[in-house]
Amino acid sequence: MKHTDIHLPRQLPIALERAHKRDVRSQFAALPFRKKGGKVQVLLITSRGSGRWILPKGWPMLGKTPAEGAAQEAWEEAGVIGKLYDQCLGLYSYQKTDARKRKLPCLVMVYPIKVRKLAMKYPEAGQRRRKWFSLKKAASLVAEPELAQMIRTFDPHSLH
Questions:
Q1: Cα dihedral angle (157, 137, 140, 5), rounded to 10 degrees?
Q2: Distances in Å between the alpha carbon of 146 and those of 2, 23, 83, 140, 153?
């Protein structure tokens, strides 16, 4: 197979024209999933600002592994209780707008969580919507092409 035979999803470049390489931020996201009727579903939440469909995600936390940080964000933002996998599914990039309207380049590592239960009371309840979607539908709703590809091809059987 030649390298030209490989078709990868379109990856967005990180815009560094007004930032230094050291300014790239890291975040950790959870991919909450369940099986319902033999089909895999993922839980998306809305962002507080624009209302876009996203994964629960946040900044690195002192004393927590990236996967533990993702699980903490899934709890705080979506009330997720479940089994955490310490296996990174992949990375995606996006531009986060900070309080001063600056665009900050972010790289996000994604960790799966098999949802056992969704709590009714959790820290950000009432601030976001949360909803279950099929893999295909969830992939069509997220803005980032790398994340869409990760969701579209997600297979819980590949987790160890």
A1: 40
A2: 22, 21, 24, 12, 11
Closest alpha carbon to 84 in 132, 146, 31, 126? 31
φ, ψ of residue 3 in degrees (nearest 5): -60, -25
For the segment 66-115, what is each residue's pLDDT rounded down to a tens digit?
A: 999 999 999 999 999 999 999 999 999 988 877 788 888 899 999 999 99
**CA-CA distance, 93 to 120, in Å (whole number)?**
31
Q: How many CB atoms neighbour CB 25 within 10 A?
A: 14
Burial of 49 (0-12, 13-18, 19+ CB in 10 A): exposed
> Model confidence over 10-35: pLDDT tens digits?
444 444 455 555 567 899 999 999 99
